[in-house]
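Lay summary. Proteins are chains of building blocks that fold into shapes, and those shapes determine what they do. In this project we predict the shape from the chain. Here is one chain we studied, written as its sequence of building blocks.
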Amino acid sequence: MTTSGSIDFNNTRNEIIHDAFFKLNVYGADEVVSAEDSQYASRVLNRMIKSWQAQELHLWKKQTAYLFIQNGQYEYSLKSTSTDHATLSYVETTFSADEAIGQTTLTVTSSSGMTAGDYIGLENEDGYLQWSTIDSITDATTIVVDDALTTACEDGAKIYAYTTKLTEPFNVYSAVRESEDGIDTPMNYLSYEGYFVLPNKLSSGTPVSYTYDRQLYDGKIRIWPVPNNVDYIMKLALALKIEDFDSATNTPDFPQEWLDAIVCNLALKLAPDYGKAAGDNYQVIMSQSQDALLIASQFDSEQGSLYISPDYIGSDHY
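And here is the predicted shape, written in a compact code that computers can read:
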């Protein structure tokens, strides 16, 4: 006997729905779920997943994101349509020659990792990032941008490029300020009220604190003091939102270990609506759903030490 060598088992949205109905004896193993029942179960499934998200059952969605600070700007919007700039990955290089106002063809130390259409941030001599997009990559040390330089840029100044903007996160858990030499300095979290009562929100300097305001359609990061240069970026420890089930062939935005919990708990959710919330089978499904969710949620936990110490610095992080 030999093993399969395969570890990619998964279920589609409609397979999950069918198996949940099968557990309830609503549909047989070889029966096709009606379009109406499938659409209803899909809505229930998506609501259930959003409820789990609210309980922060999504360790696998935690990521490190990068927010590019702008001189004189204290508020940043985190969403894919934002005019601000945050991403999950980027490349960094420098100018290899002075570039004058009006230039679109730029000489860089390396164009490796850049592609046409990427967002690109160019540090100018006034200490700001001018953002544009890459029109084309001429060669290993030459790029063409879509917008001409509005301020001259000096040899050695920083350049950042990335492809995809950060989507709205579920939450931001911590942040550090990364210096030019790669040193991370933790930033102090402020509650909404803690930021609100700051006496001078527009004082400038090196940011040491931040607050995250999770709104309905985007998230707002506010930092204090207001940055007076672009000598650093912010690294954010955050959780992305769990993706929706939009179509029949979508697979879960979950690890495989969660498949049983999803099917069993969907069956439990559907049971009252289909007259199946009683009897021995319902009790079995209830027990299975509780056990499967417990197993999955225990898998979805970080391993590490717990440290308890007095709050000497007056952190406002609750």
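What the prediction tells us: The longest strand covers residues 129-139.
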